[in-house]
Specification:
The chain is built from two helices and three strands. Helix content is about 35%, strand content about 25%.
């Protein structure tokens, strides 16, 4: 089975693009890509069975974007990685 965990659109202690602002979609997707790169540098690359990706999430105020980690919940290394990302994702762009 596949599990999925929301990590957020950017480091928790940083401002991020806001739905409804001009150019939101492009800015938000770029922030998410940068956040994925930062997570990989901090936590390490995904093992087989896990994947970081940008997710489009529909909402009544418009689609928003965030980083999610998908994982095979029957693969111990993939599950461990997902929970490490949840715990250790950097809170600032500086790491």
């Amino acid at each position: 089975m596949r599990g999925e965990m929301s990590i957020g659109p950017a480091p928790a202690n940083e401002p991020c693009a806001q739905v409804g602002q001009p150019g939101y979609a492009e800015r938000a997707r770029e922030e998410c890509r940068r956040f994925i790169d930062l997570i990989r540098r901090t936590v390490g690359p995904e093992p087989p069975g896990a994947r970081l990706r940008v997710a489009a999430c529909p909402h009544e105020f418009g689609t928003y974007y965030e980083v999610v980690v998908e994982y095979d919940d029957e693969d111990e290394a993939a599950v461990d990685y997902a929970f490490r990302v949840e715990r250790e994702a950097p809170a600032t762009w500086g790491g």
